[in-house]
Design goal:
Blueprint (H helix, E strand, L loop, with lengths): L1 E3 L6 E3 L14 E8 L1 H7 L19 H20 L2 E10 L5 H5 L14 H12 L2 E2 L5 H12 L4 E5 L9 E5 L4 E5 L1 H14 L14 H7 L6 H15 L4 H15 L8
Parallel strand pairs: 3-4, 3-6, 4-5, 6-7
Antiparallel strand pairs: 1-2, 7-8
Helix pairs in contact: 2-4, 6-8, 8-9
């Protein structure tokens, strides 16, 4: 079954047939957990001209249009979800103050260009008009993790584009690709440790350099226990730091702090 892609209006398979075997069955009730930060950046993307050149950045004169655009994008996403599920509640999460990750590793996300300053206005608009919940000194993904755990993975849909959240087990809707995905417990664990070894270029975190794909695939397999994953991870970091155990353990633990989701109660 094909559905309209929210991003480029191109029809393609949205993957729901892999999730729901009988599309004529009554809809299940679900709570949507929305990682919203990328929505604001996407809203501010001004696109390209027919010649392929980037259009001028939006200015303060465009702010009313941008607010309407953000609301329209949000409603379209919710409508896409409601094709298949009854939404009983929706929690929208956005960034908060300076993240603790920046405090323990000043280079965290320092490689990113400065965003359009209009994004701060859109954050305030999201709080006022869409009841978006700031994440304090955590990040939006951490709040998704907390609510997903407490509400029950069987009751939620994670609405996202950032693959960081794919270290969780459950039902996902990627609103950037208009794609449904269900991640098993085993797959989520594999995703988590793959991220630790390969790093995150977008976050400026790669503390296990020199460990290639082949070494990773020889070290890990999807049926490993947690203890075996930990042993494999240390093996990778020992390779990266030439068997200097102190450095390997130090950077392994730092990587987990920076790239792993944090289960921290939201006040």
């Amino acid at each position: 079954m094909s559905r309209l892609n929210i991003e480029d209006d191109v029809y393609k398979d949205d993957g729901i047939s892999e999730i729901i075997s009988d599309l004529n069955a009554p809809k299940e009730d679900k709570i949507v957990l929305f990682d919203y930060d990328s929505m604001l950046h996407h809203c501010l993307y001004s696109g390209k001209s027919e010649s392929g050149e980037k259009n001028p950045e939006y200015t303060i004169d465009d702010i009313d249009m941008l607010k309407g655009k953000l609301t329209e994008m949000t409603l379209k996403i919710m409508n896409n979800i409601e094709k298949y599920y009854n939404i009983t509640a929706c929690y929208i999460f956005i960034k908060g103050d300076k993240t603790f990750r920046k405090e323990i590793y000043p280079l965290y996300k320092s490689n990113r260009p400065d965003p359009n300053p209009l994004i701060n206005i859109l954050y305030e608009y999201a709080k006022e008009s869409h009841q978006a919940i700031p994440s304090g000194n955590k990040e939006a993904e951490d709040l998704v993790f907390y609510f997903h755990t407490n509400l029950g993975k069987e009751n939620t849909i994670i609405c996202y584009v950032d693959h960081d959240l794919e270290e969780l087990e459950g039902l996902f809707y990627n609103y950037g690709k208009n794609k449904w995905l269900k991640i098993s417990e085993k797959q989520s664990k594999w995703n988590e440790y793959y991220k630790y070894v390969k790093g995150e270029q977008g976050d400026g975190v790669n503390l296990c350099k020199g460990v290639g794909q082949k070494f990773f695939e020889k070290t890990f397999h999807i049926d490993m226990t947690h203890e075996e994953y930990e042993e494999g991870l240390l093996k990778c970091f020992m390779k990266a730091y030439k068997n200097n155990e102190e450095l390997a353990i130090q950077n392994m633990e730092l990587t987990k702090q920076l790239l792993g989701l944090k289960y921290v109660k939201h006040e």
